[in-house]
Specification:
The protein has 680 residues and is of the alpha/beta class. Helix content is 31%, strand content 25%. A hairpin with a 2-residue loop joins β25 and β26 (646-653).
């Protein structure tokens, strides 16, 4: 019997990445790829797996209903919210199965190609916590490793790693929630043990690509996934052990201590309280000090225990120390409410502290810090209380909302929601911005009521499902432009094209490739712009062969509306690529199927390519082509109209090379049967 699945994603790249994992695992006997709507790619496959025959229909639905949009008739996040996902953090992709007009969520996936260091390491913890607590399996796919690059030379700096407690939080949360939540480490292009001594002891058997693929397919095929879950969590823990080996055991749990916690199924908070080898010590620069913060740090040093590490902005006041800590805190802030101080003094449970700025110098949301409270919750269990101490600048209007209408503040600000939803107490010792009469505040809030309000949302549904989702969008945006461009060049024109980069909304800018002298050469960690040049990072880079002796690099800027194109963007797209080619590619590999990435060995000659710039946008919102060309200075324009299950694309060219390319593309598309895309 045919099974029907949907892959909902932030963008077409993440949908395709999941589809590629599935196709690699099942090695289909038959595969048919098409467009079901201008934005919905379908993949029909037949295959044999685990002794059975399968017939699957996959639909790829890129571009969630976000930012108030109503692209799809239905909201895939609604079943998650109905079962307790309350934070403003959503996963990159969700796999669902369709049965009897019901759409059941099978699992959620997050991809991360960012450097896993500092507060970036826990930036996505909110997504793991909020999704995982619903009972939906959640997999966080980490490209390991990533280097920070020198912005001027693009040379690799020293490797930076996350604290071992961060990957362990997923294991702990799996145990506490009794739901499968895990990190999966996959080998990045940069990984090279021969060139970096800090990677020498990393066992490549702990990369989880194989188990990830197997888990997804078995989950979709309704085959027991217990073995895969256990192995993924074990590999997750082996990464914890590797990271622990790299840190100072005087200020972090040692490998042996992590082994005790993991093998004995011991609560990590209780373990740290029982041993108390080091305290919690938050380092704050003199510039960041405010009000009574120095005195607060002193009593934290005196009464705290480190939560797996002395260096994380999370620590513990052991239950036995809570009365003394509360008394000392009241001595620093005598105006604080005595009843709230009495609550803090309750020696029944441990008190977890989260101490951080939270907001940038102008008071706007520091997005990575949205994950700090969820990280604390994932390292803890449901019995411990949490106290958040904020010392960063707070906008006066947000302060007023916090004191008078905190529900509205939580609805409007993701960081404040994470603080209110997961904290029992909030201490503010912070400067105030936006009011000349109020310069700073000292407040202690008892927020357990808000925490209970959010945490009791969980309904423990056996199935996370809703009405079947629409398979075609009801309105079109930039996401759809990107999907149409991607499908045109990777499917219809696949024999003559190589997609060097696809960066739709929500993309990760992780790299750009060219095929050059029988190898793929790739630049990583792309800058948005260069300080040295007036360049603009493209949304698409397509390498096209057969137009002439040299390949064409078609650099495309995509927008919903032509009026949103920046002035002179065409020239800036080309400038960006040419500037990047002034640096040796970070990595390269030959074109054989099993080739491994190696460090780049030499420059790519930009003169070996012909550069053509283009803009792509929806016809519904288009200005005249002459107007767009005059302002954008693009060589080509792709004016796109969604029709039925495909696209009509009007191409206008303004240079001789662009005109040659236009004729070439039209000839190839015109001769391609059932292409679903018409070029005019």
């Amino acid at each position: 019997m045919k099974q029907y699945f949907k892959i909902h994603g932030d963008n077409v790249v993440e949908c395709e990445r999941i589809a590629a994992l599935i196709l690699t695992e099942v090695a289909p006997l038959k595969i048919e790829k098409s467009l079901m709507s201008p934005s919905t790619i379908t993949i029909d496959i037949s295959f044999q797996y685990d002794g059975s025959d399968f017939d699957w229909h996959l639909e790829l639905l890129p571009g969630f209903n976000k930012a108030g949009r109503a692209r799809w008739r239905g909201d895939i996040f609604e079943p998650l919210r109905n079962n307790g996902s309350f934070l403003d953090e959503t996963p990159d992709a969700i796999i669902t199965e369709i049965q009897n007009d019901r759409e059941q969520i099978l699992c959620a996936i997050e991809f991360c190609s960012a450097l896993q260091a500092g507060n970036q390491a826990w930036q996505r913890s909110g997504r793991a916590f909020s999704t995982g607590r619903t009972g939906c399996p959640y997999l966080y796919i980490v490209d390991f490793v990533k280097y920070e690059l020198d912005p001027k030379t693009r040379e690799r700096k020293n490797l930076r790693f996350p604290n071992a407690a961060v990957p362990y939080s997923y294991i702990n949360f799996s145990r506490v929630s009794q739901n499968f939540v895990a990190q999966v480490y996959v080998k990045s292009e940069s990984f090279d043990k021969t060139r970096d001594a800090s990677l020498a002891n990393f066992d490549e058997e702990n990369f989880g690509d194989v188990e990830l693929r197997r888990y997804l397919v078995k989950k979709m095929a309704h085959i027991d996934t217990t073995d895969e879950e256990e192995l993924i969590l074990l590999k997750n823990f082996n990464v914890v052990r590797f990271l622990a080996e790299l840190t100072n055991s005087n200020t972090n749990l040692s490998v042996e201590e992590w082994d005790e916690v993991f093998n004995n199924d011991e609560d990590v908070v209780d373990y740290c309280v029982d041993n108390q080898r080091f305290n919690f010590h938050k380092i704050v620069t003199q510039k960041g000090m405010h009000g009574q913060l120095a005195r607060v740090l002193a009593i934290i040093d005196r009464y705290s225990a480190g939560l797996a590490s002395k260096d994380l902005p999370i620590g513990i006041i052991p239950a036995d120390n809570r009365p003394a800590f509360a008394k000392a805190l009241h001595g620093i802030y005598p105006a604080f409410d005595s009843r709230t101080i009495d609550e803090i003094a309750d020696p029944t449970t441990n008190l977890i502290l989260c101490l951080f700025k939270g907001f940038k110098p102008r008071g706007d949301d520091n997005r990575p810090d949205r994950g700090l409270l969820p990280l604390a919750a994932m390292l803890s269990d449901n019995d411990n209380e949490i106290m958040t101490i904020l010392y960063g600048p707070i906008l006066y209007r947000n302060y007023q909302l916090l004191m008078n209408n905190a529900d509205t503040l939580a609805r409007n600000n993701g960081l404040w929601k994470s603080i209110l939803a997961l904290s029992n107490y909030v201490l503010l010792d912070a400067p105030i911005l936006g009011n000349s009469k109020v310069k700073d505040v000292e407040e202690l809030l008892f927020t357990t009521g808000y925490k209970q309000q959010y945490m009791r949302l969980k309904k423990y549904a056996s199935l996370i499902e809703g009405r079947s989702f629409s398979s075609a969008p009801q309105e079109y945006h930039e996401d759809d432009v990107d999907t149409g461009i991607h499908y045109l060049f990777t499917e219809v024109l696949k024999p003559v094209c190589f997609e060097g980069m696809c960066n739709p909304p929500g993309g990760d800018w992780s790299g750009f490739s060219v095929l050059d002298h029988n190898s793929e050469k790739r630049w990583l960690s792309l800058p948005r712009v260069s300080d040295e040049i007036d360049g603009k990072r493209p949304d698409h880079i397509i390498e096209i062969f057969g137009v002439q002796d040299k390949p064409i690099l078609l650099s495309i800027e995509s927008k919903e509306r032509s009026a949103d194109l920046e002035d002179n963007v065409g020239s800036r797209l080309i400038t960006y690529i040419e500037h990047l080619m002034g640096y040796i590619p970070n990595v390269e590999k030959d074109l054989s199927p099993d080739a491994e990435w190696q460090r780049g060995s030499g420059h790519v000659n930009k003169n070996d390519f012909v550069m053509v710039s283009a803009a792509a946008y929806l016809k519904e919102y288009a200005q005249s082509s002459t107007t767009v060309h005059q302002s954008s200075n693009c060589d080509m324009l792709f004016v796109m109209s969604p029709v039925n299950n495909g696209w009509t694309i009007e191409i206008t060219s303004f240079t001789p090379m662009a005109q040659r390319l236009e004729l070439y593309l039209k000839r190839l598309v015109g001769s391609s049967p059932n292409s679903l895309i018409m070029l005019q």
